[in-house]
Amino acid sequence: MAVSEAPTFALAARRTGVSASALSQGLAELEHRLGVPLFDRDGRRRVLRPEARPVLDHARQVVALTGDLARWAERTRTGREGLLRVGMIDAVAVHHHSQTLRRFRDDHPGLRLLLRVAPSRDLLAELAAGALDLAVCVEPPASVRGVWTEPLMAEALAVYCPGGRRAGPPETWGPWVLFPPDSHTRTIAEAALREAGAPLEVVAESHQPEVLREMVGLGLGWTVLPTVQAESGPRPLARARRLGTRKLVAAGRIGAAASPAGREMLRVLRDPRSSA
What is each CA distance from 41 to 30, 47, 49, 54, 213, in whole angstroms? Predict the structure, then answer.
């Protein structure tokens, strides 16, 4: 293409970034492989033979397709294209980082973002199995084989009781409606309640914080919830007493191939200004 367009052979060589002799050798090799002479000499330039026009047309297609490939590689390398599988617990997806997800999707229109909202234990299992690229969940009570974690934020937990009354002495608290025993938050809540001296009579369980809120509203029992989930929405619960915190972490697979989009998502999640 350069030789057919440049006014001199030397200028064609400069445009392609090689010496004139290297360009001449390259053309000679191409003509040898094709078995067809491509150019005639005309002073300091070479003129494409009419019968070689299909070779030039093919070269232009190759250059265009190569440019398309380079641009695709750049988008994939910088996380603007491809597939990113992210898992989040409901509090993160709905409350803390809903706007983060919206902005990330707007900033990466060519990226296919798949979001899985589930309890922490499920997300970590799927991450370890290779079904997710990145997860944001409650810090597990013990390390998970093949998974790294990085602290992101601390989330307040509080006690809520029917009628929104203030909590009396801990020994009078309960009965309880809590997350199931396999929940990381349940483990944290039970430890805090035992330390406070509260009895642990559990009468109902659910992974859904909305269900636990309704149970409290119906007078079925007390609960422990993140304040962001208990005190938002059309019918917020009145806090009886602050109980403690749970740590939210980002998690990934140890040794997994680096995902540019995953790195960008993690960078955004690390920024404290990104949370709601």
Answer: 16, 6, 10, 19, 86
Residues 55 and 112 in one domain: no
Task: Please check whether residue 265 is in contact with residue 115, taking contact to mean a CB–CB distance below 8 angstroms.
Answer: no
258 phi and psi angles, rounded to 5 deg: -65, 130
pLDDT in tens, 64-121: 778 767 766 765 666 667 889 999 999 999 999 999 999 999 998 888 999 999 999 9
| Residue whose entry in the numeric block shows the structure tokens 């690229």 | 133
Q: Are residues 170 and 242 in the same domain?
A: yes
Decide which of 44, 77, 110 is a domain's last residue: 77
Domain that holds residue 11: 2-77
For 18-50, what is each residue's pLDDT tens digit?
A: 999 999 999 999 999 999 999 998 887 889 999
Instruction: Check whether residue 173 and residue 202 sit in a common domain.
Output: yes
In this structure, are 189 and 149 located in the same domain?
Answer: no
Same domain, 137 and 159: no
- Spatial separation of the C-alpha atoms in residues 78 and 67, rounded to whole Å: 17
Per the structure block, which two tokens stand in for 51? Answer: 């019968």
How many helices (H) and strands (E) are present in the chain, helices listed first? 11, 10
CB 275 within 8 A of CB 100: yes
Helices (H), the chain: 2-5, 9-16, 20-34, 53-77, 90, 98-107, 120-128, 184-196, 209-217, 227-230, 260-270
pTM over 0.85: no
